[in-house]
Design goal:
- Helices cover 60% and strands 0% of the residues.
- Helix 4 runs antiparallel to helix 5, helix 5 runs parallel beside helix 13 and helix 8 runs parallel beside helix 11.
- By secondary structure, the chain is mainly alpha-helical.
- Bound molecules: protoporphyrin IX containing FE.
């Protein structure tokens, strides 16, 4: 470096020893739970969302490494998708913390203080989708084909989750959706443009074309598709059913969606890699017998 090494060694002598709590910013981390009500179970709700967002951040960290690799190989790609799958595996199994971990009576009260905030507004969740597949796959099924050659900006107008948070009767966007778009639209558009040729779908097809052995990669991507678009949505849906289902009328969602019709994977049919599934699997997406068959 052209600098005096002994000066650096002196610096090490004077510096305080590193501690565990400083290194991982533990005090800051543990100070980030600020419930809006007195109900003790609200802290569980906040912390589990935070845990999930950290796993999303880990997933995006791998997405960046894959997309920006200067000489991507199928082996590197496969190993990194395996990591993302491990994160989602954790998320799917830990969702029990939500499903049975809070008192319904408390939840139904403290949720009213959170309106119109909703997990629907998780920007990282949408960024994972953008990194994982061609942007066109995220366009509403009804207009996807028609918009396959449209610009990213035009396709974004019809991204599937917008119709999820639109009032069916009036066609108006919910406040949850309006606020979400205001905060994140430019981030999503920028990422979608950056990932146009480096999303997982495009990268897989490129490696395949180059003649690399992509068989293990295909397995991991299928697993990812299944985790993100079937298993996680199903564990999440179980929570919605446990807390919001009520006879005869369901309890309204905080984000204002018609959640019974919007959330189940068999209705959404979000599929990142249709070219890795059979026609039957696509047709039966999210239905239980296909899932058990795939798990074998
Ligand atoms: C008791 C627990 C939970 C319930 C009852 C619940 C309920 C809901 C409902 C009803 C929706 C539909 C949108 C709306 O109208 O608000 C939704 C969407 C969503 N929630 Fe949750 N949620 C729970 C926990 C979580 C957790 C822990 C996360 C983690 C970040 C999360 C992330 C999401 C995401 C990403 C969406 C959008 C899904 C999509 O567009 O397909 N939720 N949630």
């Amino acid at each position: 470096m052209g600098q005096d090494m002994s000066a650096y060694l002196d610096g090490l002598l004077y510096a305080d020893f590193l501690t565990y709590w400083d290194y991982i910013h533990l005090d800051t981390l543990l100070s980030l739970q600020s419930p809006k009500t007195q109900f003790p179970d609200e802290e569980i709700f906040i912390m589990y969302h935070q845990i999930t967002e950290l796993y999303f951040k880990l997933s995006l960290h791998e997405c960046t490494q894959i997309a920006e690799h200067p000489a991507l190989t199928a082996e590197f790609f496969t190993n990194r998708v395996k990591r993302i799958n491990a994160y989602f595996n954790s998320l799917v199994s830990s969702f029990e913390v939500m499903v049975n971990g809070m008192e319904k009576e408390q939840f139904l009260k403290f949720r009213m203080s959170l309106l119109p905030a909703s997990g629907f507004q998780s920007g990282q969740y949408r960024m994972i989708e953008i990194c994982a597949t061609d942007f066109n796959r995220l366009v509403d099924k009804g207009v996807r084909e028609e918009l396959s050659n449209a610009s990213i900006t035009e396709q974004f107008e019809h991204i599937y989750w917008k119709s999820g948070a639109t009032e069916l009767a009036s066609g108006k966007q919910t406040l949850t959706l309006k606020q979400f778009i205001k905060k994140y639209a430019s981030t999503f558009l920028e990422l979608a443009n950056a990932r146009q040729h480096t999303n997982f779908s495009a990268l897989y097809l490129k490696l395949e074309q180059e003649g690399q052995d992509v068989s293990s990669l295909a397995n991991e991507l299928r697993q990812l598709d299944f985790y993100v678009n079937v298993e996680w949505p199903l564990s999440h849906y179980k929570s919605a059913v446990r807390y919001l289902e009520r006879d005869p009328v369901d309890i309204a969602a905080t984000g204002g969606t018609n959640w019974q019709k919007y959330l189940p994977p068999r209705f959404q049919k979000r599929i990142f890699y249709p070219f890795l599934w059979t026609e039957l699997q696509i047709e039966e997406w999210g239905k239980s017998w296909v899932m058990s068959a795939l798990k074998e």
